[in-house]
Design brief:
single chain; Ubiquitin Conjugating Enzyme; 4 helices; 4 strands; 15% strand; globular
């Protein structure tokens, strides 16, 4: 068993045993391929996404956890959010530049729930149309430019 597989086994066990509120790993998807997970994510109560169900795709390279997973929304319900493109790509620094091996599937899911929960208005990024037409299928190949929304 590789170090990636050992780490993912440990994370899967923790996530299925004690999942955070609104986060459910699709164990059937994991049993078919340990390096590709589907996680169901539910909008937090009281947020703009309260009661909505989303799906995240996690793809892990053999270098995980030293290399961040490829994470994106999939399926028919992609959240309308200023940092989520209509193709499911997520502009979130911990998925690229700020990734650390100390992070996990659980911490990524919690960060995404937090990002959704802090949203004040459901709208797409201003460059959504051009980005979706010109981007790579892999969001990790995008050179993101992060800025603080609170300024």
């Amino acid at each position: 068993m590789t170090s990636m597989e050992k780490r993912l086994q440990k994370e899967l066990q923790a996530l299925t045993k004690d999942p955070p509120a609104g986060v459910i790993v699709n164990t059937e998807s994991v049993s078919q391929n340990m390096s590709e997970w589907i996680v169901d994510l539910y909008g937090a109560p009281g947020s703009l996404y309260d009661g909505e169900k989303f799906q995240l795709s996690f793809k892990f390279s053999p270098r995980y956890p030293f290399d961040s997973p490829q994470v994106m929304f999939i399926g028919p319900n992609i959240p309308v959010h200023p940092h989520v493109y209509s193709n499911g790509h997520i502009c979130l620094s911990i998925l690229t530049d700020d990734w650390s091996p100390a992070l996990s599937v659980t911490s990524v899911c919690l960060s995404i729930v937090s990002m959704l929960s802090s949203c004040q208005e459901k709208k797409r990024p201003p460059d959504n149309a051009i980005y979706v037409k010109t981007c790579s299928k892999n969001p990790k190949k995008t050179r993101w430019f992060y800025h603080d929304d609170t300024v």
